[in-house]
Every structure is written in structure tokens, then in C-alpha cells.
Amino acid sequence: MAAKMSRPPIFIQDLVKGNQVWKMHIRVVDLWVVSEKNGKQHLELVIVDEKGDKIHVTTWGRDFQDWIEVVKEHETYYLYNGEPVDNDGPFKVCFNPLKLIFNGGTTMSKVDLPEIPSHSYTFHPIERFLKGDFKHDMLYDVIGVLQDVVKTQQAGGGRKSCVNLTLRDVEGNVIELVLWQDYAKQFVTYTTPNNFVGPTIIVLTHSWCKTNAVSGLPCLSNAWSGSKLYINLEHPQVDEFKASFGSNLPVASQSLTCDSSVHSNNNFWTKLSEVKSIRAVSDFGRDCFATTIGTTTFFNASRFGWYFETSGKTDAERVTKFKLEVEVQYDNHTGVFVFWDKDVIPYTNHTATELREIMKKAGEDNPKIWPTHLDALLNRQMVFRIKYQSQFRRFSIVKILNEDGLYNKFDAYLAANEVKPAADLEMDTTSPSLNPNQDTQTCEQSSVAQPEEAANHKGSPSASCSSTPAKRVATSTSINDLIQADELTPKQSATKSKNGKKTKHLKKD
Known about the structure:
Blueprint: E1 23-35, E2 41-48, E3 54-58, H1 64-70, E4 76-80, E5 83-86, E6 98-101, E7 107-110, H2 126-130, E8 139-153, E9 162-168, E10 174-180, H3 182-194, E11 201-211, E12 218-222, E13 229-231, H4 236-243, H5 278-284, E14 288-299, E15 307-309, E16 320-330, E17 333-340, H6 341-348, H7 352-361, E18 381-389, E19 394-401, H8 406-417, H9 436-439, H10 479-484
Parallel strand pairs: 3-6, 10-12, 17-19
Antiparallel strand pairs: 1-2, 1-4, 2-3, 4-7, 5-6, 8-9, 8-11, 9-10, 11-12, 11-13, 14-16, 14-18, 15-16, 16-17, 18-19
């Protein structure tokens, strides 16, 4: 009697719900640890077979130690048994309608299977994101060359680490990417010592895309579980992507010395109807937002000086920040503009703390003594997005953009169009709760929600993040969103008074 043969292998496409006994030849192409809300961990992975089909796999937390010692990324195995179920989680990493759960009967044997293809990315093109060709419950791999670092934020004081940047492809399509927590730290750790000598290629796996509720543009972010960030990865597909640019591969321009905003090359960051002269904004007599232009002329040497210290009980908790008052002139009218960290650092290449240390060495640690480094701000034609504070008659800067030719464009527009009396001016008086000083400390939020659950059917936060968010943020308006919004109407809570204190509701007899 002939010996019974081993069970013949099947392919991933042959898996059927309810059938838990089978054999497959697979390669592990992605693997990550998920930390659950109860503190336990489990392993998740993506496997591929000889035909190139993939499926998402989830293991039980009780088996975590067993699987973490057995399963290695990029290795090939015989896989026996498991439970195919519907791929109906809130976020999906594979298009397969099924996903696989390793149960008590699942086992794996490591073998050499060269016929199974090695790992390759399925990058979702930036152009398709911009055309709306994506699903909110899918996670995508994305590649792009770093174009701009818009803003960086360090953790502390209840804030999460965050980096806003933009990626572009060979066709010039540009999309925003927001990196949170450990992903932001990884980016800053890599880029700061490297100083961006040459182009920087970003690969983010399992990225989440959502349409910005204000601008209507798609924006990417990392998922809390499963995303992997690679910077200048050595990989054939990355080499192919770089080669597609030829000699036109762009080099990003940014400063990562502290929380700072870097000017982006966006011609459509404002509407011409919002461009007003310094005189027109001042004559309006009310708080408003507008775009204006002018030449920086003098420092306003007030009693407050050029820096201030944030509150804190110890020296380590107190941080020195820029707050400069600069007189800006246009068409024989002058306004006092308040420059914050994000507005000063790109010109001085120093943080306020660094400049203060330089002054200390010279024996001049006094905010009323202005270092010569600040002179780099003077005699410059600038384009500003501002919030005018009528009570103090100050122009607080939201953003600066000095793109070539933009100043002359707005100058010509004002000369030809600003003939209305002040009473008839249309100004943006809405207040989206934007504190310009906070803008130097708070990362520019995208309207993209921060996904608490991604690549994880149980919705657990990622083990790769040291501190996951306490709750999901549905939407939050960024400075770019503010600039592009047609209407931003603030809503005041009926239970709060103007000074922010809660009011008591008296019971009527």
C-alpha cells in the first residue's frame, strides 16, 4: 500500500471561508507588531504566493511570543492551516476580499522557495491621489521626492511630534504628507545630520489618504499601525524612480533647526481679491485677515525687545522664542508687523535660543540689545499673509512667501485695483482661533484625521509609536487651509463667556 502523499499546496486565490485545513507556499513580505489598548501585543503580516497574490494575516495575542520567534520578514515558508475570513476591517492593506487569521492549528516551516518572487512595492501614483482615485478604508504605499518641509514640531506640553512636508513625482504632481510621532522623529533624526545634500526620496508604506475638508485636496499621513518610513532606501524600485527624473531631480530646501515654517512654492496660496495695502487694512479698523506687501525698514525697539521666554519652573522648561516688531512700508504707509519664530529663522539661520547664547558670550544678554544677525530681515520686499489686530494696530504674520515675481505681481494689482474707500473694502474678518504665537509651536495640522486603527482589525495603536493619540481628530484647519478657504465662520460655545469662563445656567422657578 502506497504511503499517503503530503497535502498538495494551494494558492492564495483558492482560499475559501470555512476551509481551515490546507497547505500554501508563501513569502512574508511585510511584518509589524501591534500594541493593543489593553497593553498586549500581536503580530500582523502580509504574505505573497508564487502567483504574486497577497493577503493580510492577523495572529492572536496569546500566540505573540511563539510567532515573533518564528516569522521573519522576506523569508519563505510552508504554511499550514488557518482561518480565512472577510476582509472587512476599518482599514485594509490588501485588495484581497479575504484576510487570514492564524489559529491554534496554524504552523509554518521555513524552506527555500526561490520561485516565489521577492518583495516589491505597489506604489499608488500621486497623480491618482490628486484625481480622487483612492479609498478611505485602504492603506497605500507611496513614493515621492521631498519637495518642501513645511513645518516641524517637537513633542512636549501636550503636543505630538509632527512634520508636514510635500512630495512630488516626475510629472510635477505634489501632495502633502503628515508624519506623526515616531515617524516624525525618524524623519528629523535622519535629515538633520544629513543636511539634505542632494535629493531625498521618501517611501511610506501603509499610508492613509483623506480629502482635506477645506481645500478639497488629498493629504497623506502614516497609519498608527503598520506604516514604515524609508528615506533614500536602497531598492531597485527606488533607483528606477530616481532615474525617471533624469538630471531634473529636485533638491528640497528646508530648515529643521526648530519648530519652523518653510516657504513653499505655491502660486495659488492666496486670492487676488484678498490682497490689500497696508493703508487699506489699517483704515478698515477691525480685526481681519488679508494678504499684503511691503518693504521691511526698521525694528520697533519696544520695551519687550526681540525675544521672550515661555513659562516654566526650571531653565529646561523655559524656551526662548522670537517676537520682533518690524516696521514695514508700502506706498508711503507704514505698519508694525510682528515676526515670530517661523518668520525669523529662515533668514537668521539661528533659533532665538542660539542667538541668545551668542549674545551671552558677548556679555549682552538683554532682549533690548538687538544682535546684528537680525539685520538679515531688513530692506526686504516681502509678501505677507497677516492677521490684523485692530486693538493693538499690529500686523501679526501668518505666513511669508517671497516667490520670484510675486511681489511685483501684487504691487501691480494694488496699483490698478485698490481705489475703493475703506468703508467699502471686503475683508476677511473671520477668526479660526488662530494664535500667531501658537503657530510657532503647533504643527500645521492637516484636515486628515489621525487614524487610531490601521492595518489592524482590532483597532489597536501601533507598537512603533511611543505615544499614540488619545482620540481621533476629525478635522482641524491648517494655515494653508485658512488661506484657501472661502468662508471660515467661527462658532462660539453657548456655555462660555467671552473671557473663556463657563457660565452657570440658573434654574427658573
